[in-house]
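[job 0412] stage=fold_complex status=start
inputs:
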Amino acid sequence: MSSPLPKPASDPQPLWFKDAVTYQLHVKTFADSNGDGIGDFKGLSSKLDYLADLGVTCLWLLPMYPSPFRDDGYDIADYYSIHPSYGTLDDFREFLDAAHARRLRVVTELMLNHTSDQHAWFKEARSSRDNPRRDWYVWSDTDDRYRNVRIIFVDIERSNWAWDPESKAYYWHRFFSHQPDLNYDNPAVREEMWNVMHFWLGLGVDGFQVDAVPYLIERENTSCEGLPETHAVIKFLRSQLDAHFPDRMLLAEANQPPELVRSYFGEGDEFHMAFHFPLMTRMFMAVRLEDRKPLVEVIERTPEIPESCQWGIFLRNHDELTLEMVTDVERAYMIDEYARDPASRIYLGIRRRLAPLLDGDRRRIELMNAMLMSMPGSPIIYYGDEIGMGDNIYLGDRNGVRTPMQWNGGWNAGFSTTDPERLAQPLISNPLFGYQAVNVESQKRADHSLLNWMRKLIAVRQSSLVFSRGQTTFLKPANHRVLAYLRTLGKEQVLCVCNLSSSAQAVELDLESLAGALPIEMFGRSLFPRIGELPYMLTLGPYAFFWFKLRRF
Amino acid sequence: MAQDSVLSDELLHHLMAVGHVDVLVGVPTLNNAGTIRPVVKAVHQAFARYFPRDRSVLINSDGGSDDGTPSLVRNASADDTETVTVSHSLRTVHRISTPYHGVPGKGNALRQIMTAAELIQARAVAVLNADVTGITPEGVAALIRPVRDQQFDYVAPVYQRHPLEGPLVTQLVRPLMRAAYGWQVRDPVAPEFGCSHRFVSHCLEQDVWDTELGRVGIDLWVTAEALAKGFRCCQTGLNPHPATPTRTPFGELFAQVVDSAFACLERHAPYWLGRNGAEPMPLVSPPPTVAVEPPVVNGTRLTEAFALDVENLRSVLQDILSAETLANLEALAEKQPARLRYPDPLWASTVYQFLLAYRGGVMRREHIVQALAPLYLGRTGSFLRQYATSPEPVVDEALENLCREFERSKPDLVRRWNRV
Amino acid sequence: MAQMIANAIRQAGTNFVDSLSVFLPRMVTTLAIIIVGWLIAMLLRTMVRAVAGWLRINVAAERFGVAPLLKTADLAPADVLLGAIVFWLVWLGFLLSGIDVLGFTSLQGLLASFWAFVPRLLLAVVILIIGFVVANFAWRATLLAAVNGHVPSPRLLSGAVRWLILILTGAMALEQIAVARTVVLTAFAIAFGALSLAVAIAFGIGGGGIAKRILEHQFPEQPRSSADEISHL
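[job 0412] stage=fold_complex status=done
writing structure:
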């Protein structure tokens, strides 16, 4: 059977993102080519073979724009350039071409909501009240407009207004005070942001992950999140995109319950993709509780989205594991189970990587990845999780999960030739997760390493479109420790059975509707007994899972 | 072909699905359609509110109800609109309703519940009574917490009741068990209790289940067994216990309770013969203080038949009681019913002599117990009449004195026990 | 003449000696049987007493109310009594067997009927014992049930039950040993019938109220006694 490999950008396939397996990375910590301790695009280019070999089909880069780096690059000082530490615009172009040549698409991050206070626009805007760019930001003489709007970085900021001593006025910032919000009520702002997008799309970028979308527009007596006017802005940008670059993708980062995120898909006229945040939390909860209930509930509560849209699902990312959208009981449980060390808690979440969260338990890591690869949506892998990298919760903010990629057990883990003391972020070096124990080179040589296992997993997933495009139906066997679901696409059916428990389990599945089908286990291609009308008995080892392709003859 | 075992295939199926649990609540039923739904609701609210992270299950052991009790249990909604937002459960909610084999009775139901609890490694087990309304989530939690958090093996309930209520317990069973076993248990015949996995395993190994004691006196036996075999026991306060609207007529009820009590004492003789005094039992949480109404009883009516009964039963009583005791009873009988006063020492002595006769088998045991019934009525009537208008503390004091009288006469009992 | 007398006497003497020679060995055998029988009977008595002691027959006798009856009748306690019965029966058997050896034809018939009689006698004794036990049990059970059920005249009732059973038993035992069979049977039938009639008349006419109360006792609408008005547990 031919596998649906992504076609290069020159070969337009508008729904490529539905079948993509994305790899999220930060240029800064991936590979350093010039020995300054900071990763760059030349370094990244040199690692493209590794990524292509892993089997991913799309790369998502964290912000690479010039920035004073007070928020790890999310405070942008120039939209049309590359941060000098990462290289030049030409380096970027070369990287893009090399990626496309290996059939890897590239999605970059676009911060629409705010800029750095070092951005030229803001410098102009604050210089005087009459400046033409004044209106590009949101100003006020008092700080009691838009009252009762929640503060996002509760640990750091005390208000959404900051006082500008230069122009003697308050400016609005939903995030850090050094990140003033752009004013999208101003059509000039909208036009300019489209120009920004146009610029990068013209270079060949395949899409944007748009940050902080709910916060674009403010209105009095509202939560200032997800307002209709915000959606209007998005529709505008999307319509421009469709007109000029119909095969590119917009991915929304909206940390909200799925029922609210639904609105960012519009009727297929806003974002193509959006993250499904609660699924991540509930996967961790289900494995800890050894009960499928939280997971099944969240998926069954997820609303239908337009046919041309797709959820983005992930286990971990560059931010904390958010516990914003769970009940108090659930949050207390997650904190007690996953974040016993208070240093690992930040804002309303847990700042840890996948492997430390799962106690380095290989079986659990495999199970979680298998669930990720078979749940409805496009999976996103966070760099380093494919080898089981560790974290450093004693670094500030969320830098603990943004440490240099561990390529080998040698000098600076193969990330950079510079002095270790000069590295932008310190390496993880403890005996359990440190680079001497966990690195790409060692895992390439070990047949049963996590890296090789992940390659196999991705390959199996990509062998069938049923995972990326199929319907999902949950079977609900009496044994609540077993999660079982059927993925269906046309005539193709795959049965996924996962044991969420640390002890072996037996489960009887009611597969009467599938009677007559022959299950073939997808990793080893072994034949399993044909499904009959009686309940189908399966036994699973601790944290084991099966993917069965169901064939009929 | 497997015989009808305690573990039916259906129950086994359910247990396999539920897997190991931390908390198990068992509810035996037989035609309790009228009262079962609040019980199920209280249990689930207790799970959600007080044990949200524990793996839990409710098992209903049904003796063959024909009023739809099992389906009421299965369909009872676990969620109450008010609790959904406050605390919905993290985990899958489990509820099993299964019939048990054998003669309908608490013994067989309890055996099934305990077998299930043992198999799925339930750390804390609570058994509830489906006969009465008024069970609250707090009550359920009160039976479970001492086992789960404080490593007790057995939790007996303490109900807030007026001391004039439940004379069969206050006049006979409580002082007798207290003096014998040496523990101040307020309600030895309680139909509700909590216990640990260790205790469950132990009970299942005992040979009581196929006996008469297991059939009608299992509540008493459980308490006695916990005391006699050195388990860590405590008491916990539960809500006011409404007077059980018992369907059993007095004669049968009396026979069951007293026969069970005597049988327990006989079984556990090696334990209590050497035990002196009566230790207070730790009270983990006191019962809620609610003002209880004194029951409306006419003590005199109970004593009306006393004299005649004593005279009629003389030929039987002389085989059981000593000549002196019998003479004292006859002297009492000569008094008018309204002035009958059955003194504590005589009553204690009466009970003990009946116990000895029971042990010695001077006649059929059923007859011995039946012969005690009229004397009990006389004693109860005299007590109720004497304290009908007294305030609670006075009555409590009188009951305490009765218990002490039983303790005082115990050495004599022990001496004569060994001689039989 | 004297010769004939002498011959006769000689003949008689010879006959006598002949019969004696036949009789003496038999006599010896008889004595032997009797003595051996006595020894065996003694042995069996001791064994029975021992077995009775091991089976705690005395305790059972106490329980079933047989012991006081024995005491009143000035009989030995149950195990001794049982031993004595066994002793006498066995020894009597041997005795009669021994006499049988002597060959007295008239006694043969007696012996035969004796052997036919013994099992029936045993059966009658067994019936009597069972009857005693049942009567006693019924007496006590009725007494207690009547007292607890507040049925009037419990002693009278229980006594009547006991005597009825005893009479029935006695009649059955007598019938077994076939003593004045017809007479006993008829007398019993008449007595039983008359008694039943008397009771029915008394109950129906004089005891209508009681009958009503007893029926209500069986099928109660309200608490039937003050004891049921309060909750004891």
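[job 0412] summary: Residues 2-54 of chain C form the longest helix (53 residues).
[job 0412] exit 0
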